[in-house]
């Protein structure tokens, strides 16, 4: 995995070259909306600003998976509204954007220079029946996190200590997702549900945004056995830079973020590690109080909210900061290309092939 650390005078240029020569793909892209200072998170109650397109280009992104959150009392209707909003936004800016629906779309994005958007969701609750998977796939949904909080009809999340594993309904949903070319994402699932879903799936499974518990014993993080099971079936895990998930100590820096990548490379190999930032470029901490969202207990310390962001990464060119840090650490160029997009592109192509 490692080579000699890059010389400081060559780091910026090498980082630029690596990013520009790669297909950069963030597997959990989150951003802020609402005009100047972007005071809100996109939860389906605010249009997407076309100015985001320029920011995505400045960030070095060629594509991303947006696992949207639904803020609607009827999850089925909320899913419909969000898909309609995204499909309309992509259609209105077809010269700059395109939707990922099949493997060849990665090639089309490269050839056209358009940003490729993979539509996903944090919530499987809109799947009232197995046939709903087909319906939403027809509307462009290409990834779904099976359960995010508590327990639903499919399985249990990390914050449900009494929860079981994947249910019979969950197995039927996974099978139909495999059949229609929709990614099974187990980022928020309990380790038992994760392992059950990986075993049940005939295709590789994603952890679009997760961190190893072996580096930080936070309940949100993933046990080594689940990580190994994911990798054994060809899956990829996107690493998040949220402070609470990196270390229980302060200060927390981008070096702690790299430590998680190194740990996973040693555990399962660099082909199974990627980017799952799930943090807006402006960060979460600067959201105004009225726009803060309730945090689960695993993102708090002793009943008090701890800051979530790494200040080093609170800017639009944060990917360049990460790659520069990787070069200083001695990551090999090919592994960096895999981390910043190649690994997720490989697995998503396999999932979408039907």
What does this structure look like?
The protein is globular. By secondary structure, it is an alpha/beta fold. The chain has one domain (about 10-350): TIM Barrel (Alpha-Beta Barrel), CATH 3.20.20. It is built from twelve helices and eleven strands. Strands 1, 2, 3, 4, 5 and 6 form a six-stranded parallel β-sheet that branches. Strands 7-8-9 form a three-stranded parallel β-sheet. Strands 10-11 form a two-stranded antiparallel ribbon.
Fraction of residues in H or I helices: 25-40%
CATH architecture type: Alpha-Beta Barrel
* Average pLDDT level: 95
The structure class reads: alpha/beta
Gyration radius, rounded: 19 Å
CATH topology: TIM Barrel
Give the count of helical stretches.
12
* CATH superfamily grouping: Metal-dependent hydrolases
| Element pattern in H and E | HEHEHEHEHEHEHEHEHHEEEHH
The fraction of residues in strands falls at 5-15%
Q: How would you characterize the largest beta sheet?
A: 6 strands, parallel
Distance between the termini: 33 Å
- Overall shape: it is globular
Short description:
The chain is α/β, with parallel strands linked by helices. Helix content is 38%, strand content 12%.
SSE blueprint:
Elements: H1 11-20, E1 25-26, H2 52-58, E2 63-68, H3 75-92, E3 97-99, H4 104-112, E4 115-121, H5 131-138, E5 141-145, H6 168-180, E6 183-185, H7 191-200, E7 206-210, H8 224-232, E8 236-239, H9 243-246, H10 254-268, E9 273-275, E10 300-301, E11 304-305, H11 318-329, H12 333-352
Parallel strand pairs: 1-2, 2-4, 3-4, 4-5, 5-6, 7-8, 8-9
Antiparallel strand pairs: 10-11
Helix pairs in contact: 1-11, 5-6, 7-8
């Amino acid at each position: 995995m490692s080579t000699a650390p890059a010389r400081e005078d060559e780091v910026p240029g090498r980082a630029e070259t690596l990013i520009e020569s790669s297909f950069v793909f963030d597997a959990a892209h989150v951003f802020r909306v609402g005009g100047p200072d972007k005071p809100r998170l996109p939860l389906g109650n605010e249009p997407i600003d076309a100015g985001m397109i320029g920011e995505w280009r400045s960030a070095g992104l060629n594509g991303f998976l947006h696992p949207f959150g639904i803020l609607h009392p009827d999850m089925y209707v909320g899913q419909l509204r969000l898909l309609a909003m995204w499909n309309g936004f992509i259609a209105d800016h077809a010269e700059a954007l395109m939707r990922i629906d099949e493997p060849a779309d990665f090639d089309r994005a490269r050839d056209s220079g358009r940003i490729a958007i993979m539509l996903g969701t944090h919530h499987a609750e809109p799947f009232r029946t197995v046939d709903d998977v087909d319906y939403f796939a027809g509307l462009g949904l290409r990834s779904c996190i099976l359960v995010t909080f508590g327990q639903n009809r499919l399985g249990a999340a990390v914050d449900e200590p009494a929860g079981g594993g994947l249910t019979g309904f969950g197995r039927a949903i996974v099978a139909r997702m495999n059949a229609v070319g929709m990614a099974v994402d187990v980022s928020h699932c309990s380790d038992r549900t994760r392992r059950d879903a990986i075993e049940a799936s005939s295709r590789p499974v994603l952890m679009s945004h997760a961190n190893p518990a072996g580096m930080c014993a936070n309940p949100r993080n993933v046990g080594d056995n689940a990580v190994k099971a994911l990798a054994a079936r060809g899956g990829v895990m996107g690493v998040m830079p949220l402070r609470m998930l990196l270390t229980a100590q302060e200060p927390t820096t981008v070096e702690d973020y790299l430590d998680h990548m190194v740990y996973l490379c040693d555990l399962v190999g660099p082909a199974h590690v990627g980017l799952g930032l799930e943090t807006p470029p402006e960060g979460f901490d600067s959201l105004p109080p009225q726009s803060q969202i309730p945090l689960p207990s695993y993102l708090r310390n002793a009943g008090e909210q701890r800051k979530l962001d790494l200040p080093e990464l609170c800017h639009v060119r944060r990917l360049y900061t990460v790659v520069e840090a990787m070069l200083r650490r001695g990551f090999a160029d090919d592994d960096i290309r895999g981390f910043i997009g190649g690994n997720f592109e490989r697995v998503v192509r396999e999932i979408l092939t039907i």
